[in-house]
Amino acid sequence: MRPEQVIAALRFDPLLPVWLLAALGAIALAVVALGIWRRGSGTWLRLGAFAALLLWLSGPRLVQETRQSLRDIGLLVVDQSASMQVGDRAALASRARQAIEADAGKLHDLELRTVTVPEGGNAGTRLFTTVDKALADIPRSRFAGTIAITDGQIHDIPKTAPGGAPLNLLLAARGEETDRRLRVIEAPGYGIVGRSVTLRVAVDDLGVNGGTNGDTRGHAGPATLTVRRDGQPFITESVPVGVEQRIEVPITRAGPTVIDMTASPLAGEVSQLNNRAVVEINGVRDRLRVLLISGEPHPGERTWRRLLKADPSVDLVHFTILRPPEKDDRTPLNELALIAFPVRELFVDKIGEFDLIILDRYQNRGLLPIPYLANIANRVRQGGALLMSVGPEFTGITSLASTPLGSVLPGGPARGNAVVDGAFRPYVSDLGQRHPVTEGLAGANPPAPNGGAPSWGPWYQRIQPGPMDGEVLLQTPDGQPLLALNRVGQGRTALLLSDQIWLWSRGHQGGGPQAELLRRIAHWLMQEPELEENALTAHVVDGKLTIERRSTDAAPPGSVVVTDPDGKAMTVPLHEQHPGSAIATLPAAVPGVWKVSQGAESAYAAAGAANPPELADLRATATLAGPLARSSGGGVHWLAGNGNDVPDLRRVEEGAGASGSAWIGLARRHDHVVTGVAALELLPSWLSLPIIAAFLVLAWRREGQ
Hints:
alpha/beta; Rossmann fold; Immunoglobulin-like; 5 domains; eight-stranded mixed sheet; five-stranded parallel sheet; 38 strands; elongated
């Protein structure tokens, strides 16, 4: 606080209401005016009496106040958002902060409070929101002004300066800058496999030839746009600046596709950080088409139909062979209630349209000619999928294992009587414990070394297999295969060597996870990415890169090589999460494409900008907040110019200019607190009444002469 001051002032404390004093004054003036009109000899003495009376009634006092001045409060606001990390802005801001705080320490009538503007996420730089919070506990009568150290990229600029005090901007740059940005106008998050999606982008040059809003066509010539897809070159072309471009990207597989786009740098631009944009498009299948052929009615047929009809992404075509060819009772076709089985249409004309073919207890009775069965096998090799659930019909001379389908199946029946009857509970194999199709199934036997029996219900019949290929995921208690998966060419097959899974759907002795198991088998066959048993995946969520390595190999997971968007590589160890899955996480603060590699496998993840409004324009500029600063009486100063000098801090009187060529000012508000009051009555009653009486006596004597 400043030293105490004594202030004297004349004040009035009326003994009567003001309106009554005014009425008495009017009467007195009327009496005096009448006396003057009649030229009375004592009129002026009567005026003196009336004046003394009114003055006494008005209660004049001489009041002395002892005041103690309060220090004014100024705000120093330091922008620490993402754009302030570009170039040497952070160093310039730190130096300016130290210099201003040192100057403020020399001013005894000023308290300088420093606040920082944190990273605002998707909201951008909320500088004035921070100022408003700081003003919540600052009396407006003591607020001297705001000094903001920033780059000028502020996203909450008000119409008037905070607190009605001067605002000075200290911009961490040499002057107005230029910047090139790659702007994504539209990018779909999903795409249908087999179709193309359209990206709409534009290259903008900001600050070129006075351009500030991105509309800079013709200012700086064309730019080179490079597009990479999952790390591989896709398109490189020259594009005009400021003109929307459309990029067609075909979606060839399910799962994420990472598109990395880069614009060539602009000469003299402040940063290339926003010359890049990354888009992740998730490929999804449009209505998976499934053909279900039931060889004969049986209790498990309804299980398959319910499962597939319950999935909204599945388009199911189901046929049940109710009337095999050998049962011909010579009924005319036009009298049959059942439709004819469209063999040629399904297995010749439209077989390529089905993603998955399921043969449920189907046997070779001649209904499907051998060439048609060969078409199914060829469809599998070309990328299709086949699932067979078999029972006793899989044995003997009518077994499909003896047809061209046998070449794509994981195995066939054993010779002789391969039908095995008797209760047993399916076990998940050691490989199955690590495979995404069967790992973690509810009720399964615990993995080694704990071991134990499964808690799901038993089955009562199975088929003894011959030599098997592929991966055995379910087995009998004595190790005989029950469920085997195999890759054939570009397609996949699955063989379930029992038709008893329907018992689980009926809840027999506790039932089992038949819906989840069959769903996983079907989606693995249709090559859904989340069920790949040997895969390396990566994704970025909330600024963290999560890496997952799925493997059926029991060897230690090892480590991966992570390459950030700037090209810096690091080795990251993987940690086993559960059998078959190992993960690692690390911060992904740099926006762009992150590459994860292990051996010959690679995965890509897209990291978006943490604060898109901050990176949309990286220029240091006074065009946004400069008008507000000047209208408040403050000004704009560039910290990297004029010999790198920080302007001096001064005190100015309220209403005067608060900015000069090499200085900035904070206003003096002269706020104070009253520490003492003394009052002296100028016309006490003992003095006023004799004076009034003296005037009246003199007036009476004068008029009596």
